[in-house]
Amino acid sequence: MAEKKPKKATATGGRRRRKPAGASVGLAAAELQAAAPPGDVVSLHRTIEDDGGKALATYREPYGGKWLVMAALPIDLVAATPYQRNLSETHVRKLETVISKLGRFLDPIIAVRTGSHEEGGIKYWTPNGHHRLSAMKTLGAKSITAIVVPEPAAAYQILALNTEKAHNLREKALEVIRMYRELARLDDASEDTYALEFEEPAFITLGLCYEERPRFSGGAYHPVLKRVDEFLTRPMHAAMTVREQRAKTVLALDDLVIKQVEALKARGLTSPYLKSFVVARVNPIRFRPKDAAPPAFDETLQKMMQAAEKFNPDKIKTEDLAKSGGVPDEGE
């Protein structure tokens, strides 16, 4: 039998880079300012200057051709959207040091005008730039450069737009549930209307769990919820009741899992993955094919609670834990 040829290593450590698209898309550089901006963009240009800012350029972004305004905004009129993750003080201090040392601010934030949401003198929200904005305010800057997006909906596209600092699961989930509450106030839209903004229905449920239990080990449950949770079709203000019940169910399961984890510890078994290990053992869809339709949320969680109650710590051996992996119980 012919020997298999060894796979060639790639610059990305074994993963092949995606090939560029066969056809060019978007706009050429000379086309970004070739057309006259529409009325709403012209109006935004004027509004920025009425607010005491300065519109530096009006142009279309090169991929989708959507209009943007590059502007300098009075920094006191800008705030982070009120439902995004908390600041990382370490990250802010690092940014302050770098900006101060270089004597330059070169990375504009993204901003939208708040419109009817104007509060406390704030006229612009940034869904992508919380840490940079905070650093500049601490350094005493008078203004900040921003790419101002005419469409207010951009304020809710935090997870899709935010490339400033990678989210962990807790941050994603808390950001989604805060945004969920804000959007639920605005209209009768259902969850799937904001599928892009929320990314996963599981983040909504997990966000409620984290609010109730800050040290909740969401990473242990995320693989299951990602498969059985789904966007609800009823209006979000009504769907919140269902979400709250789902979160209560997950937390009730967590109580049972914690009890079994403590029993394992009492037997001298130690591992940073004890909770993930127990959750995996009681997961009824663990070996179900990924392309198979999973059972309903309530059915799956009910089976997991029954399995958690029957879980026998005395049958678990050290080698069983050695084979396991997953997300550490805390601080994922």
UniProtKB/TrEMBL annotation:
SMART domains: ParB. InterPro entries: ParB/Sulfiredoxin_sf, ParB_N. Residues 311-322 have a biased composition (Basic and acidic residues). SUPFAM superfamilies: ParB/Sulfiredoxin. It comes from the Bacteria. Residues 1-24, 310-332 are annotated as: Disordered. Residues 1-20 have a biased composition (Basic residues). Residues 71-163 form the ParB-like N-terminal domain. This is Chromosome partitioning protein ParB. It comes from Nitrospira tepida.
